[in-house]
Design goal:
Shape of chain B: globular
Oligomer: heterodimer
Helix content of chain A: over 70%
Distance between the termini of chain A: 37 Å
Structural class of chain B: alpha+beta
Number of helices of chain B: 14
CATH superfamily of the largest domain in chain B: Hypothetical protein af1432
Strand content of chain B: 5-15%
Chain lengths: ~140, ~400
Amino acid sequence: MFAWDDSYSVGDTDLDAQHLKIVGILNELYALLQKTTLAPRGEPVQRLFQNLTQHIVSHFAFEEEMLVRVGYPDVLIAQHRKEHDSFIDHIRRFHQALESGDRRALEEMLPYLYGPWLINHICGTDHQYIPYLKAAEH
Amino acid sequence: MANLVKVPPSLIRLDEPIPYSIYDDKGTLLLMAGFTIQKQSHLDFLLEKGFYYDRRTNPLRPKVRPLIKLEEHDSFDMLDQLKLRLTRLLHNLSRRRGGEYFVAQVEDIALTLMGACAHSNNPALACLHLDFHSSYGIVHHLKTAVLCELIGKKLGIGDAARKTLVQAALTHDLGLIDIQDILDRQTQPMTAQQVERIRSHPADSCRLLEQNGVRDPTWLDTVLHHHERIDGSGYPNQLAEDAIKLPARVLAVADVYSAMIRARPHRKAWRSQDAMRTIMLEEDTKIDWRIVQAMIKAVGMFPPGAIVKLVTGKIGVVKEPTQHIACPIVYSFMRPDGTPMLTPIYRDTSDSQHSVCDIVLFLEYRRYIPLIRGLWRRAPLVPVAVAVGR
């Protein structure tokens, strides 16, 4: 489980709420996958995956538009978009693992989501744009 | 559980793959062996929280497969980079800096763009079609240039002449660049002064080009006459018929089409189907038919990146045209109930079960862009560690 900490905040209520929501879904997914009796193809996991897709895609689009609005440098936006794309690509692979019923792949998925995603992205890359958000407020 | 011991600081180093998998106090796997921590703050966070590793496992010594391998550049990315390069070039121009490099830089952008189109033109067009945040001046110049390159190829124009045409397309609205973004956002009718600026922009652009070292007469002529119409109704010189040279005619078609399919605050984007029809029907006395036909052959009725509704109610995006101009290859990405599909699905629209029934407005679907832009990027070569282990 990944506990949300206020230090992860990027200082924008909408973006924080979206990050928190995504973390919440990941935790829920994690809890479900812990139940050994659960079939990976089962309805609840599928539903959560659908939920995750919806939130993540909308969040990425929202965040990218926000970055353009606050004048974040184009080069950094391009890099940021790449991270988003790569992440969606990985989620897609995990989804394929889910579809094919590969339990092991699923169990190894959470460390990825928690690692490169939460630690490097939300708590790292996303923090680089905070000064621009703050400057745009004034 | 008993074998989990605290991770000593010496075990994890910045920018080096971690030798052991790391767990939290409940034994939950947090980071797989081989993951690289790239930031001091993350490392501090991990050490401070006091995580664990399993001392029974062997440390990972050999070379670790990279978790994410960066894709090679493709046309989609190349166009993304050209947006940055053209932005910088025009920025310098407006500050009157770097004029001595202007011609060389435009040539360089033109060659890269032609290279991207030769490699694969559909990602290049899609990259521009799916862009909703770059300034209008940048996207319009690049889109016009890509269309000129594609039309030029269909018409059999040679490489050197096409390069000049592309250079003209990249610079044809220079005279408007300072007010283009204002015009783009403006909802009121244009002022008399603005109308005057529009009338004079071909000549203004030419003057700017000359000031920055452009001597090529074809380049200058093409820019000067890109608003002439073959019935003599254009400007600045009311040239008609054969008095308008071929490059200027090609640029005229590309310019009109590119401007029509872009959304503006005072009007929604023309659906590209309608834009094409307008060019074909209403303007048929004004522009060159042969060129319009070449454009349709090159981009189809539904250009790459266009968002379409299928008869099944699903929403999809055009990946590329096929031999049949009305039946492009489409990937559906949204179900009729509005939920996004993680993996867009290939649809053969020549099959009547999946045929295209309408083009829909791109702006309403822009929040799905992160999901669909990957369709034109080359797939990453190395899968994540997870997928290999099966």
